[in-house]
Specification:
Layout lengths: L1 H9 L3 H19 L8 H22 L1 H6 L7 H4 L4 H22 L1 H22 L6 H21 L4 H24 L1 H7 L4 H5 L1 H26 L3 H23 L3 H21 L3
Helix pairs in contact: 2-3, 2-8, 2-14, 3-6, 3-7, 6-7, 7-8, 8-9, 9-12, 9-14, 12-13, 13-14
Length: 281
């Protein structure tokens, strides 16, 4: 039973889901600054968690065939047959429906942004583009930017510049996260027939795209922090984190290696988590 529950939990990719959930929290908290009225943190987190998790489970259902081919994913519960497809499908549908209905009950515009993220991730990225073009990462990035935009929308009641820039920061960050991963597992993706940047455009072009991604992400997040913060401390920390991110990106470009990309991959997640946390200060 413990193994079965663990397998079910793994279907939502806990670390990824929690990071996206935290961006939604940061967007919401930053939008509440200076506003009066009751906060809805619990409902924000509940609806986003269900919608994000439901999407992730449905993605796993759809991708189970290529997961069987790739060494790093062959042991996943659906690919290995430990969890029946019907169980995962129902879990994904129910979580998605519950999360989306909850979101629309909270606020219509908030619900539309959450729905946009669901559609971009599952339909546009996973089903339509992932197996067709390496540029699918852009659409995956757009989907990844929806939770922080949704949080901001729920707080402010509208789509405004800061919310769009926060979503843009996540979009620009996604290539750093995904492309470093695809460099390490390029052979796996080739066996599965999934086009990724290293296999289509080569390592050098991929590393250049990663470096550009780090620079743009750092610039946008630093600008947002400068605009929103009331103290110099958070801005100084943001600048320091941005310098490390850009430095690791440049290091991986000058002397590409799996090890250097691994450092960048790990720090990129830490950077986004810390940069979003600074918006709460």
């Amino acid at each position: 039973m413990r193994q079965y529950l663990g397998d079910l939990l793994s279907l939502i990719k806990v670390k990824q889901t929690l990071l996206l959930l935290f961006t939604g929290l940061a967007g919401y908290a930053s939008g509440l600054k200076g506003l009066e009225g009751p906060a809805a943190y619990g409902e924000l987190l509940g609806s986003l968690f269900l919608a994000i998790s439901g999407t992730t489970v449905l993605n796993m259902v759809y991708d189970r065939d290529i997961d069987r081919i790739m060494g790093r994913t062959a042991a996943r519960p659906l690919a290995s047959g430990r969890i029946p497809v019907s169980v995962a499908l129902w879990l994904g549908v129910l979580m998605s429906a519950w999360g989306l209905l909850w979101a629309f009950r909270l606020d219509a515009l908030y619900g539309l942004v959450v729905l946009a993220g669901w559609l971009l991730d599952l339909v546009v990225y996973t089903i339509w583009l992932k197996r067709r073009t390496p540029w699918s990462v852009i659409w995956g990035g757009l989907a990844g930017g929806m939770p922080v935009l949704a949080g901001r929308v729920l707080a402010t009641g509208r789509i405004e510049t800061v919310g769009v820039l926060l979503a843009l920061a996540v979009l620009l960050w996604i290539p750093t996260h995904i492309l470093t991963f695809s460099v390490k597992h390029a052979a796996d993706y080739a066996r599965a027939g999934v086009p990724v940047f290293p296999n289509v455009y080569g390592l050098r072009a991929t590393q250049a795209a990663i470096s550009l991604s780090t620079i743009l992400t750092a610039g946008v997040m630093t600008g947002i922090t400068w605009h929103l913060t009331e103290h110099w401390g958070p801005l100084a920390v943001c600048v320091a984190l941005a310098a490390v991110l850009v430095g690791l990106g440049a290091n991986a470009l000058v002397a590409p290696s799996v090890e250097r990309n691994g450092w960048l991959f790990r720090f990129a997640s830490l950077y986004m988590l810390a940069a979003m946390a600074l918006l709460l200060v």
